[in-house]
């Protein structure tokens, strides 16, 4: 009976709403047809709202990593000096891609579970005026921190360097003001807070970045953004667009607009606060201590000698149909992560917390049933002003 039943609580892919699911059901149109062009052009236009930008937003048929590669491939030439701010696995991914394109990579590493420090970035940029680009992960999904994009944007804007931001697991769940915060390239992907299946990525480029891209001579082909810019004028993509995902994106952007970006951010924040309150009430330890550094889209929770996180994940999956994420690389076996981004209602997280309590009880972890639920409900009631 419940073969397909599940609660997908990983930081992407995320659940798809029935509205978006239905929108994607539409007959496949030819990717060069007038009818599809119309939908495509409207969708690109609507996407500006989520980046809070006046610039064009480009649709790529790829996952998030393809968009990260696009950002590198269009800016970095062999031996260019770039600075990567590393707060976890996704910062490391920028390092790997930049190296693959021959960059001379400087890294600034910050302790796992903490954010990039703007003062340090400022010093390094002053000492290295030849840095061509600074790469930053908005929400570092592997540790569940949110980096201070605005503050770093404020520093990078006064230099010749570009600020390139991986907002894959943040955009739509947390504020990103492309134009006001002086972000030069921002990227996101469909299967995170936008709430579509995997396979589509979005890239937004500032005027400062275009000047660099127009002069760029390094090797690139599929991700050559100048080709996308040329084709967007004709209301199309250089290669076959991900037609069904564009239908879905169009609907998803309507739903996001209808809720209002700000209200969406508040919803994500409320859910984060509910999770954090529950975790504390269950005597579990949050991986990100500092409230301000805690992402609104994913929460990481530490294991300990009474709590084997992999055993917990297995019970959650098999007995309760709740899928949560484990730790990646150095954090494997040390933390588990609850994804709470996109099409998620506060009530959904109460279900997750309930399953978590029962699974903890099952492995003999000392908790009292209902403690986490109570703490989370109080946060929600308080938010609704129910005294
Ligand atoms: C999910 C994610 C990506 C993209 O990963 P793909 O598997 O290529 O979609 C990139 N950066 C961050 C921060 C992510 O959370």
UniProtKB/TrEMBL annotation:
Keywords: Aminotransferase, Pyridoxal phosphate, Transferase. Substrate binds at residue 337. Pfam families: Aminotran_5. InterPro entries: Aminotrans_V_dom, Aminotrans_V_PyrdxlP_BS, PyrdxlP-dep_Trfase, PyrdxlP-dep_Trfase_major, PyrdxlP-dep_Trfase_small, SP_NH2Trfase/AEP_transaminase. GO terms for biological process: glycine biosynthetic process, by transamination of glyoxylate. Gene3D superfamilies: Aspartate Aminotransferase, domain 1, Type I PLP-dependent aspartate aminotransferase-like (Major domain). The modification N6-(pyridoxal phosphate)lysine is found at residue 192. Its cofactor is pyridoxal 5'-phosphate. The keyword Transmembrane helix does not apply. GO terms for molecular function: alanine-glyoxylate transaminase activity; L-serine-pyruvate transaminase activity. SUPFAM superfamilies: PLP-dependent transferases (SSF53383). Residues 30-329 form the Aminotransferase class V domain. Belongs to the class-V pyridoxal-phosphate-dependent aminotransferase family. This is Aspartate aminotransferase.
């Amino acid at each position: 009976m419940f073969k397909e039943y599940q609660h997908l609580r990983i930081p992407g892919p995320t659940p798809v709403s029935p509205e978006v699911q239905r929108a994607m059901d539409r007959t496949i149109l030819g990717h060069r047809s007038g009818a599809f062009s119309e939908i495509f052009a409207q969708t690109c236009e609507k996407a500006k709202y989520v980046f809070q930008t006046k610039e064009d937003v480009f649709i790529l048929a790829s996952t998030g990593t393809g968009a990260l590669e696009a950002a590198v491939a269009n800016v970095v030439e062999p031996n260019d000096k770039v600075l990567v701010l590393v707060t976890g696995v996704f910062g490391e991914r920028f390092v790997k891609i930049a190296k693959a394109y021959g960059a001379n990579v400087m890294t600034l590493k910050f302790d796992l579970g903490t954010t990039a420090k703007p003062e340090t970035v400022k010093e390094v940029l002053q000492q290295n005026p030849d840095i061509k680009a600074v790469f930053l992960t908005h929400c570092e999904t592997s540790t569940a921190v949110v980096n201070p994009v605005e503050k770093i944007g404020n520093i990078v804007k006064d230099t010749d360097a570009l600020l390139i931001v991986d907002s894959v697991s943040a955009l739509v769940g947390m504020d990103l003001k492309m134009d006001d915060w002086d972000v030069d390239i921002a990227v996101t992907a469909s299967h995170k807070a936008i709430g579509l299946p995997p396979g589509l990525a979005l890239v937004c480029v500032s005027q400062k970045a275009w000047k660099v891209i127009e002069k760029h001579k390094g090797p690139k082909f599929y991700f050559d953004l100048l080709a996308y810019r040329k084709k967007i004028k004709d209301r199309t993509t250089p290669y076959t667009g991900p037609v069904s995902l564009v239908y879905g994106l169009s609907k998803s952007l309507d739903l996001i607009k209808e809720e209002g970006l700000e209200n969406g951010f508040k919803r994500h924040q409320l859910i984060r606060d509910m999770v954090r309150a529950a975790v504390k009430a269950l005597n579990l330890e949050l991986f990100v201590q500092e409230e301000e550094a805690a992402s609104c889209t994913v929460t990481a929770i530490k294991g300990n000698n009474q709590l084997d996180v992999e055993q917990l994940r297995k019970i959650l999956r098999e007995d309760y149909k709740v899928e949560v994420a484990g730790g990646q690389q150095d954090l494997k076996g040390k933390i588990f992560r609850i994804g709470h981004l996109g099409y998620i209602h506060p009530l959904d997280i109460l279900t997750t917390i309930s399953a978590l309590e029962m699974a903890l009880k099952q492995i003999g972890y000392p908790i009292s049933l209902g403690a986490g639920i109570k703490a989370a409900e109080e946060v929600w009631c308080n938010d609704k002003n129910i005294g």
